[in-house]
Design a protein that fits this description.
Elements: H1 7-17, H2 22-29, H3 33-47, E1 52-55, E2 58-61, H4 63-86, E3 92-98, H5 100-105, H6 107-117, E4 121-127, H7 130-138, E5 144-148, E6 155-169, E7 180-184, H8 190-201, E8 206-211, H9 215-224, E9 229-232, E10 240-242, E11 254-261, H10 268-280
Parallel strand pairs: 3-4, 3-5, 7-8
Antiparallel strand pairs: 1-2, 5-11, 6-9, 6-10, 6-11
Helix pairs in contact: 1-2, 1-3, 1-4, 2-3, 6-10
């Protein structure tokens, strides 16, 4: 006869395995401490082995308990995903962090479609530098971040890659024999480093003509018509153009955006939002 493991018991088992005492687990699951002890006894009976060593310091997993833990976590996760996917009335919230490149060019269309498909989800948005966003993620102020590549344990891999281009006002005459005037963020900045490295390698003189802490500031400086900046094609707007070939400027490397999150388990609404961002970018 098949034995069906009780998910309620598995939840108590996982909490204890993660370091909570029986008393703390009992409070978390809304049962008495003796009831939790009986749950663990039943679980040991179901699997036919002891799952905890008991000592003066508390409990620790046995070899059988270590083997069971992975299965227990997967069973709970699958159960929760199934319930979550059908529970459209449950309150949901996602805090998203993105760089200005995403916020100003991609998010308007993304949010419009996402809100149509997930009207019950509350989205909180933070637009900031990659460094600030990843730090906020570590402080658990954000659920997911899309930012430039950083060596960080929360980096889940490449999200998308985009070409860097030289951008100026349409009809920008070029500097002639003078240094190329640039509008850039202050260091450290991936785009700034790429621009200066490329110009140095090409022996092309330049000067920093405008500095801004925001993408809007860079756009304003470039629209005035006296300088060039480096971003992705998403910054292109009326009056602005890719002038790299026209001004014979050096080629630039691609820029890589990565996905950062603390939550590796599936989250349907969050995953839909991430996929919409990927498609539109």
């Amino acid at each position: 006869m098949a034995i069906n493991l009780d998910l309620t018991i598995l939840r108590s088992f996982v909490l204890i395995a993660q370091g909570r005492t029986f008393a703390e687990t009992a409070e978390a699951v809304g049962r008495s401490q003796s009831a939790v002890s009986l749950q663990i006894q039943r679980l040991e009976g179901d699997v036919g082995a002891s799952v905890f060593h008991r000592n003066r310091q508390g409990v620790e997993l046995t070899t059988a308990g270590e083997r069971l833990l992975g299965y227990a976590q997967r069973l709970i996760q699958i159960n929760d995903e199934a319930i979550f996917s059908f529970n459209d009335t449950a309150p949901q919230a996602i805090s998203l962090g993105v760089t200005p490149d995403f916020a100003e060019s991609v998010l308007p269309e993304v949010f419009q479609r996402f809100m149509q498909e997930h009207p019950g989800v509350e989205v909180t948005l933070r637009v900031d530098t990659s460094k600030a966003l990843v730090e906020a993620l570590h402080r658990e102020e954000l659920d997911v971040v899309i930012a430039l590549t950083r060596d960080d344990p929360l980096n889940q891999g490449v999200f998308t890659e985009a070409s860097m281009i030289w951008i100026a006002r349409r009809g920008f005459p070029g500097p002639g024999d003078r240094p190329l005037p640039l509008a850039l963020f202050e260091a450290p900045c991936t785009f700034r480093s790429a621009a200066l490295d490329a110009l140095a390698a090409a022996n092309r003189p330049y000067r920093i003509a405008a500095i801004s802490p925001s993408l809007g500031g860079l756009v304003a400086a470039v629209r005035v018509g006296f300088c060039v900046t480096v971003r992705t094609r998403h910054m292109l707007a009326p009056m602005l153009a890719d002038v790299g070939e026209e001004l014979d400027l050096p080629k630039l490397p691609p820029v890589t955006f990565c996905l950062y999150t603390r939550q590796r388990e599936r989250h349907p609404a969050r995953d839909d939002l991430i996929e919409l961002c990927r498609q539109h970018f």
